[in-house]
Amino acid sequence: MVSLARKNLLKDLPRFLVAQAGIMFAVSLVTIQTGILKGFTRSTTLLIDSSAADIWVASENIVNFELTEPFPYVQVQRAQQIEGVALAEALTIGSGRWYSDGKLTTLRVFGFDPNGQLFRPGKVSDTAIKALNAPYSALIDRTNQRSFRIDGVGDMARIRQLPVMVVGFARDTQSLVSSKFVFTSLVNANAYISSGFSSGLTCQLGNGDITCVNAYQRDEDTGNAEVVDPESLNSDSPVTYILVKAAPGEDVQLLKQRIESSLSGTKTFTKNELINTTQSYWQNRTGIGFILGLGAIVGVLVGMVVVAQILYTSVSENLREFGTLKAMGASDWDIYSVILEQSLWMAVLGYLPGLLLCWSVGTWTAATQGIVVLITPISAVGVFGITVVMCVGSAVFAIQKVTRVDPGIVFKA
Amino acid sequence: MVAIAAQNIQMSFMSGTTETKVLKGIDLAIPSGQIRLMMGPSGSGKTTLLSILAGILTPTAGQVQLLGQEITTLSRKELTGFRRDHIGFIFQSFNLFPALTALENIELALQLKGYKGPGNKEQAFDLLKQVGLGDRANNLPADLSGGQKQRVAIARALAGEPELIMADEPTAALDSATGHDVIELMQYLAKNKGCTVLIITHDPRITDAADEITYLEDGILAKQSSLVSGFH
Ligand SMILES: Nc1ncnc2c1ncn2[C@@H]1O[C@H](COP(=O)(O)OP(=O)(O)OP(=O)(O)O)[C@@H](O)[C@H]1O
Ligand SMILES: [Mg+2]
Q: Which parts of the sequence belong to the ABC transporter domain (chain B) (predicted)?
């Protein structure tokens, strides 16, 4: 088959390449924006995703995964007694400050049972998890190594006033909208979270005025002073989640209801429910989904303008050719298909290098910036669809122009 | 049988508020298989008449029958289909597709006329050989001389074996010797394939190729067409 579309497109190679570069950048913009949005939203729920729990029990005031209220540890013990619960384990989440080489970093500490089965901090070895049974030991995410100023396993740092030894590294845990993640045992976490939590308010009455001085204790380095082992949890110790494994054959929805009615003030989620709640919080309650979506739309518009401009110029320059086709008896559809074929070629030949570019950029940002540009097969297909719609859509202007070509033009010398 | 017939063709163009009558009642009958030349001064309406006869332009009044089919009542879409199936065109400025080789120009015409499949290339090549350009198949139009381009255009016009060939000043862009060769080729192929041919020309040196000559002057046909004697 002779393709007038392809030949005409390649006739002016430099111009074609410039156009393809334009489409490629448009494709990249769309892919990177949506990829960042996807990577970002997914990062907020990586820990939920890697857990083996069927049901997550949280405070009824929960807003998203990291924004919720603690409840007393005794609820975990109660949960274990509920019929249909095979396993119930506690997860506690708190915040703190990481001191290393005299530098300060905010952190989010996750306490879980290293001997349990339901929580797992991303990709991590079993030996690293078992090592958390030691007092004041912790795992950190690989991507945080530099922020935490940690050279390797065995390095020491300080969380608030307490020492911490890094006993291993986890992968694929860090949320892009959170402080740096630290994983440790429940008892260690409890100690870290409650460490240095004292402040005093001193007020004096004089001359009819009350003067108050609020004194906070600083996170002093305890230096070589004796550090006592963390206390084990009591029934009042705060925990954030109860992770529940349902007994085999148990209806998860029914079990959820049973747990909510047995443990007052709680709300239960399946894994997917908690993921959706958290992701849609970050996408909708914050402007990030809107901003990144806007970037993607700008990308599509830029692409449309480029393609429309190229096709329109190409048609304008080849009016006589289209007139000849019409005189020779080409139907409207024959002529549209020339333009549509051109736009499809532009779509395919702009998409492929565009995707390659994104993939390289994504690999680079993931390695160096810790920012994941998530390109799933589905999103790749989706962006291809957008590219095709973009190119074919902008062919409309060119088609408009060619419809008005008078075949009589062919007789003009 | 009459291949191209027209009765009382009138054509006016509006420019602003003034109406210019370009064709003032043309009657025409070209028998099947004939080569008809149409001559006349510049601006006399030759191209306008050809466009009407080819169904590209709709006349203000009058009827046209091609191969016995009344075409003035056809829709634009039906006219396009009629041209595709029955008419080959040759233009003064060749109008080859510059991005396609000589061979591809003919292949595209075959494709357009509904010929699909691998036989197209051979058929196109065969036509190229008939116009003496078998060795130029892969040249782009830009690399061909004017005479060669017009020969490719003739091969393209013959693609799909149309019954009618219409040419508007096919030799005007060629020097007279080349023009003469091109017309001779057209004449030979048309007679060979039994096409009816209508050629508009200014060129008095090619009149010996015609079976009959029609003169158009100021929108009307001169009283008598001259039957060219001594042909064959
Ligand atoms: N689309 C149009 N709009 C207005 N006037 C037109 C149009 N087409 C042709 N005319 C006019 O009609 C007249 C005949 O034009 P036409 O092109 O048919 O002449 P011609 O005999 O082919 O001339 P030439 O030998 O120079 O090619 C001219 O005066 C021209 O200006
Ligand atoms: Mg003319």
A: 4-232
Beta strands in B122-211 (DSSP E): 164-168, 196-200
Hey, which residues does A183 pair with through a beta bridge? Answer: A110, A139
Interface of B with A in 99-158 (CB under 8 A): 99-100, 104, 107-109, 111-113
pLDDT tens profile A167-205: 999 988 999 889 999 999 999 999 999 876 555 566 666
Tell me which of B84, B165, B174 to substitute to probe the interface with A (most A C-beta atoms closer than 10 Å).
B84
The total domain count for chain B is 1
Segment holding A211, helix H or strand E: strand A209-216
Indicate which CATH number applies to the domain containing B144. Answer: 3.40.50.300
Quote the CA–CA distance of B127 and B136 in Å, as a whole number: 12
Q: Is B17 a member of any domain?
A: no
Pairing of strands B35-39, B196-200: parallel
Q: What is the pTM of this model?
A: 0.77
Give the H/E segment covering residue B213.
strand B212-217
Q: Which residues contact B177 (CB under 8 A, 6 or more apart)?
A: none
Give pLDDT tens digits for B20-66. Answer: 999 999 999 999 999 999 999 999 999 999 999 999 999 999 999 99
From the list B50, B84, B169, the residue facing A328 with the nearest CB is B84
Write down the H helix ranges in B159-223. 176-193
